[in-house]
Specification:
Family: Belongs to the methyltransferase superfamily. METTL18 family.
Strand order of the largest sheet: 1-7-5-4-8-9-11-10
Shape: globular
Largest sheet: 8 strands, mixed
Bound molecules: S-adenosylmethionine
Keywords: Cytoplasm, Methyltransferase, Nucleus, S-adenosyl-L-methionine, Transferase
Number of strands: 11
Strand content: 15-25%
Number of helices: 11
Main location: cytoplasm
Protein name: protein-histidine N-methyltransferase
InterPro entries: Methyltransf_16, SAM-dependent_MTases_sf
Length: 325
């Protein structure tokens, strides 16, 4: 299989938003995901269909690309058929939406997470389909733009192909279904069928302009957590989010180390919010909330992990807030 040859952890790399926009297919199809909000209402978020991402890969001819990029795309093709499969350090599950990401969006809907501050830096670690970030962007694009509010949204996934095939298409879909677009529709953007969006040069141009108007700066990073370079990404964040990333004991130290560095640098005492959504137990994989808490406390004596939301229906799930000392 394509992934057997790969053993080394993927290195940190920035994936340029422009290059992802340039390789968008002419149409993306999507289905709705329902996010319960803390006020009892629901938000419907459009997500790209996996069969559509698969179609893009096939029609772009993954075989035409050479080197590591080709291996990455070949394995993306493989995993699009089995999005729940996790193959450590090859494909880590980002193509599929995992249920705790919805819990995290629900939790965010009930708190002030700081997006009204003058400058907010947000990092979603292990973003995949990026539901918490989509919730935040939906809120931003649904309020009037303000010059006094600048938002830096950084998205990290182990696999660059996930950022390209799923994360950015989802962001475009969220933007397109927000009230921000109404302002631009008068500029001639056509209406689209409910389940598919035509990606025209005009639409992409309007998306770019919208980001500028709303002062939203998006950057994408792939690679392993231990290689994540805060020097390149611009330092600490005000809001660090992660969901369904604590499943494997082996990767807990690198995840926790990144979360800690991303919130709290040694010479810095800024305010931050660090939220982790996870199942209480990941059967058969080893990780879970207890192991995560132990590892946080072993890494940073004095750090506090507090449960801020708990879901007991089905598998027990939690949203936790971490305070580093
Ligand atoms: C199970 S998926 C969860 C995706 C998404 N947060 C959700 O809840 O739907 C785990 C995510 O963590 C990332 N990930 C897992 N292990 C990683 C590692 N060692 N280094 C970097 N990223 C990793 C993967 O890329 C993937 O996006």
């Amino acid at each position: 299989m394509a992934w057997e040859a790969e053993t080394a952890r993927k290195p940190f790399s920035e994936v340029s938003l422009d290059s992802v926009l340039e390789t968008m297919p002419p149409k993306i199809s999507h289905s709705p995901l329902t996010v319960p909000l803390s006020n009892g209402s629901v938000l419907t978020i459009p997500r790209r269909d996996l069969f559509d991402a698969r179609f893009q890969l096939i029609s772009q001819g993954t075989g035409d690309v050479e080197g590591p990029e080709s291996a990455e795309l070949m394995s993306a093709l493989q995993f699009l058929d089995n999005p729940s499969d996790l193959v450590p350090l090859v494909y880590e599950g980002g193509l599929k939406t995992w249920e705790c990401s919805v819990d995290l969006a629900t939790y965010l809907s009930g708190i002030d997470y700081g997006a009204r501050s003058t400058k907010t830096r947000i990092l979603e670690i292990g973003c995949g389909t990026a539901i918490p970030t989509l919730y935040i962007l939906h809120s931003i694009f649904s309020s009037p733009p303000s010059k006094e509010r600048e938002i830096h949204v950084h998205l990290q996934d182990y696999n660059a192909s996930v950022l390209q095939l799923i994360t950015i298409p989802n962001i475009i879909l969220t933007w397109y279904h927000s009230s921000a677009v109404r302002t631009f529709r008068s500029g001639g953007l056509e209406d689209h069928a409910e389940s598919a969006l035509n990606i025209t040069p005009q639409l992409l141009d309007t998306f770019r302009k919208s980001l500028e108007t709303y002062w939203v700066h998006i950057r994408l990073f792939s690679g392993s957590w231990e290689s994540f370079d805060l020097g390149i990404t611009g330092g600490r964040y005000d809001l660090v989010l992660t969901s369904e990333t604590i499943y494997r004991l082996d990767s807990l130290p690198s995840l926790i180390h990144l979360m800690q560095r991303a919130c709290h640098l040694d010479d810095d005492s800024g305010q931050y919010l660090c939220l982790v959504a996870a199942k209480a137990v990941y059967f058969g994989v080893g990780g879970g909330v207890a192991e995560f808490t132990q590892c946080v406390e072993a890494t940073n004596q004095g750090a506090r992990v507090e449960t801020v939301l708990e879901k007991k229906s089905g598998v027990n799930r939690k949203v936790m807030s971490v305070q580093w000392l």
